[in-house]
Structures are given as C-alpha cells and as structure tokens.
C-alpha cells in the first residue's frame, strides 16, 4: 500500500479552480500576528460598536462561562476560516487521543458536519460520475449528491453494516473506464439503519479502497453515540496509512444541534479545498458557538468530555430499549428489525407490505403517528424507475418515552390495515 502522492484526479474542476481569498489569508495571519502589527488590511467591524458587554452561559452541572473583554471580542468578531485557534488546537488533541491519525492530518471547523460534507462532495464530484454507497443512505447526503445525477454503485448491507464481499463485487463490475473516486460510508450508528460497522469489516473496506485507489468519506456524527459499552471499533481515520480518509465529526448529538459545529479531519490537500470553499461562502463557522464550545470543553478536558459522552450514550440506550420493548410487544410477526448498536433510530422492514410511502405519509399522519418511509434513504440512479420500499425509520431521540407504546400500537394497526387493503 502506497500513500497518495497526487490528489489531482479526485478534485472536481470547480474545486480545482478555487483560489485563496487574500482577505481570508491575511485574517489567518492576523490571528497570530505580534502586538506591533497595525491591521489596516481587513474590514473588521470595530468591537466598540458591538452592543454586548458580557455574556454568561450556565451549564447543567453548575459551571459558569463568562465571556467578556478579549474573550467576548473573539466570540463577536471574524475568525480565521479554519476556526477559533484554541478550539482547533483542542480538537486536534481530541483526534490524536481518540483516533491517532497520521502526523500530517489537518482539521477545519465547519458549520455542522453536513456543511463540511456538502463542501467535500462539491470538491470531489462531477456530474454523472460513479460513487459507492450503501443500499440505504442518510437522506441529507442524497440531497447533496442527487443533483449531480451520479452513477450510484450500491453496496448491500446487513445488521453489521456494509458487506465487504458485496463491495468487492461492486468494484469488480461496472464500467472499468470510469472508476469511482470515493466510498461514502456512515459507519457508526448509521442513519437510518443503526448499524455499527465491525472492526474486521472496516479493515477489509479500507484494503479495498487502497486496491482500487479510492478515498473514504467517513461520515461519523454518531461516533459518540454507541451502545457497545466502550468497545468502539477503530475509525477509518485511525486505520488510514495512505491519506485516503476524510472524516466528518459533529457536536450536534453531544453538545447542541443549534450550535451548528462540526469538524473535518484528513489530508491537508483535501481539507485545504474545503477551506477555500468556506472562504467564499460562510467565511467560517459561528464565532460565538466556537468560543462557547471551547470554553466548555476546556473546563471539562478530554476526560470530562468522555464522561459526558458516557452519560449521553446511557440516556439514548435507555430510550432505545424502551422503544424495542414496544416494538417487540406490538410488531412481532408484522415487522422485522434488529437492535441498533448506535445512533437514534430503529430501522424496520414490513415483509407483507409492498411500500411504506402512502401508508406512513397519508394514512399514518391521519392516525397521529409520524415515521419516515424507506424511500427517503434509497439511492436511485436517474435512469431507474421508482422501486417499492417496505422499510421505515422510527426515531427514539425526542418523543416522550411514555408515548412509545401507544405509537407502536397505532403503527401495528396501520400495518394490519395496509395488509388488508393490499389483499382486496
């Protein structure tokens, strides 16, 4: 296995044409400039005009974060595109401790991990090119990729995630003149299936990516939401010895979705392209969110952050177990499902129902029950006719626990009615 020396073949024409913004580059320089530097270059608003003198944030465990003076000015002012330097440093330390990435790995903070993913896909994709995905994919990712009308090379999965044997078959077939550039994979608590890819499968998939000279987009927002009691499989980033992995992390599930903070880690040649896109779009992720997150994480330290993760995982595992109890009670014999090892979702298949779309989005809503039909997560090539999908996704994240039982009672009634209608 040989490290990638030239990333040129992976970069789209649009991304390759992006050039650094001089203003943004000088903003980065200014962040570490000596006190003697006189900043006449950038159009920074004067902090004296900001109508805030102090912002205080209190946490549930009684800690207080006071932002005033220079700290508040950082939270209210433009930042370098890469992110708030103290937070960038903290996150690099976290990645080093958790994933032990290659020494040259770079990191950029994004406006949620999906913003980073969107910019990464724009960096890599050209219309009509092949991309490798699982048979069910996060709907937000499909929304990014579908306008490119890609040639989806779809790999079947099972209760343990993407099947390496099926991936090998997919990569060995198809038009050999147009090789896929990357595999998109959601390895941990996958949305919608809830699967956690095993260590052995991760290693096999990485080996196949190496053999076929492909990148791996490791979309992992549920990494800190696993129910394996600390036995986390190694990430693709930790397995990467060749500069093939671009990893997407999120704080949405463990701190707050409203902070809109994620971070991308990977080869500097690829992270740089994402930063160039940010320079002409969002400029940088929210300054206020970054400063708040850093102050909290700095109070906790990495050990305290992992203690918080443990409590979050226990919270969601309890909710998962309550939903599973309701599913076993009401759906046994009506629907098939596996125990999700991570994430926020129970993925179900209804064998005796042809398609769940109308069942859920028309008749289900009238019964005051709301789930997502499997169609929302199914990659489809533009030349293909719509297929029937008898899957559905239930989220155990936010609905009241006491409502799970009645929800699945209603769902069972809905399925029986659908089955009866199909027989007529």
Q: Layout of helices and strands, plus pairs?
A:
Layout: H1 13-16, H2 22-31, E1 55-58, E2 64-67, H3 69-76, H4 85-99, E3 106-110, H5 113-124, E4 130-134, H6 139-145, E5 151-155, E6 157-158, E7 161-162, H7 164-172, E8 182-185, H8 199-211, E9 215-219, H9 236-239, E10 245-250, E11 262-266, H10 268-279, H11 287-331, E12 336-337, E13 345-349, H12 357-366, E14 372-373, E15 391-395, H13 404-423
Parallel strand pairs: 4-5, 8-9, 9-10
Antiparallel strand pairs: 1-2, 3-11, 6-7, 10-11, 12-13, 13-15, 14-15
Helix pairs in contact: 3-11, 4-11, 5-6, 5-10, 11-13, 12-13
Quick overview:
The chain is of the alpha+beta class. It has helices at about 15, 20-30, 70-75, 85-100, 115-125, 140-145, 165-170, 200-210, 235-240, 270-280, 285-330, 355-365, 405-424; strands spanning about 55-60, 65, 105-110, 130-135, 150-155, 155-160, 160, 180-185, 215-220, 245-250, 260-265, 335, 345-350, 370-375, 390-395.
Q: Give the count of structural domains.
A: 3
Q: Which percent bin holds the helix content? A: 25-40%
Give the overall shape, derived from the CA principal axes.
globular
Largest sheet: 5 strands, mixed
Strand content: 5-15%
The run of helices and strands is HHEEHHEHEHEEEHEHEHEEHHEEHEEH
Structural category is alpha+beta
Spatial order of the strands forming the largest sheet: 3-11-10-9-8
Residue windows where pLDDT falls under 50 for at least 5 positions: none
Which CATH top level class of the largest domain fits? Alpha Beta
Named CATH architecture of the largest domain: 3-Layer(aba) Sandwich
């Amino acid at each position: 296995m040989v490290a990638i020396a030239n990333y040129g073949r992976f970069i789209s024409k649009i991304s390759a044409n992006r050039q650094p913004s001089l203003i943004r580059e000088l903003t980065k320089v200014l962040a570490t400039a000596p006190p003697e530097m006189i900043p006449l270059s950038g159009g920074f608003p004067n902090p004296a005009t900001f109508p805030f003198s102090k912002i205080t944030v209190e946490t549930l465990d009684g800690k207080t974060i006071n932002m005033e003076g220079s700290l508040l000015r950082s939270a209210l002012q433009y930042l370098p595109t890469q992110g708030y330097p103290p937070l960038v440093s903290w996150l690099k330390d976290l990645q080093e401790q958790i994933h032990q990435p290659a020494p040259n790995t770079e990191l950029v903070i994004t406006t949620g991990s999906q913003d980073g993913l969107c910019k990464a896909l724009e960096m890599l994709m050209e219309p009509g090119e092949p991309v490798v995905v699982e048979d069910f994919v996060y709907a937000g990712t499909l929304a990014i990729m579908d306008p490119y009308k890609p040639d989806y090379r779809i790999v079947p999965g099972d209760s343990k995630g993407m099947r390496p044997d099926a991936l090998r078959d997919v990569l060995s077939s198809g038009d050999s003149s147009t090789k896929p550039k990357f595999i998109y994979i959601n390895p941990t608590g996958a949305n919608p299936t809830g699967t956690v890819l095993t260590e052995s499968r991760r290693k096999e998939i990485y080996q196949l990516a190496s053999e076929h000279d492909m990148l791996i987009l490791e979309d992992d927002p549920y990494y800190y939401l696993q129910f394996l009691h600390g036995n986390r499989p190694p990430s693709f980033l930790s397995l990467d010895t060749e500069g093939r992995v671009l990893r997407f992390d999120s704080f949405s599930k463990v701190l707050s979705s409203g902070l809109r903070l994620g971070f991308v880690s990977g080869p500097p040649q690829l992270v740089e392209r994402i930063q160039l896109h940010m320079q002409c779009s969002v400029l940088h992720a929210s300054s206020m969110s970054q400063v708040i997150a850093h102050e909290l994480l700095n109070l906790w330290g990495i050990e305290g952050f992992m203690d918080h993760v443990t409590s979050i995982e226990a919270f969601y595992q309890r909710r998962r177990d309550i939903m599973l109890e309701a599913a076993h009670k009401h759906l046994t014999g009506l629907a098939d499902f596996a125990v999700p090892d991570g994430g926020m979702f129970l993925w179900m298949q209804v064998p005796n129902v042809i398609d769940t779309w109308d069942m859920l989005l028309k008749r289900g809503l009238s019964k005051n029950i709301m789930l997502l039909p499997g169609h929302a997560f199914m990659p489809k090539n533009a030349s293909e006719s719509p297929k029937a999908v008898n899957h559905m996704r239930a989220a155990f994240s936010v609905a009241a626990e006491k409502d799970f039982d009645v929800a699945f009672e209603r769902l069972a009634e809905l399925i029986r009615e659908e089955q009866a209608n199909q027989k007529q």
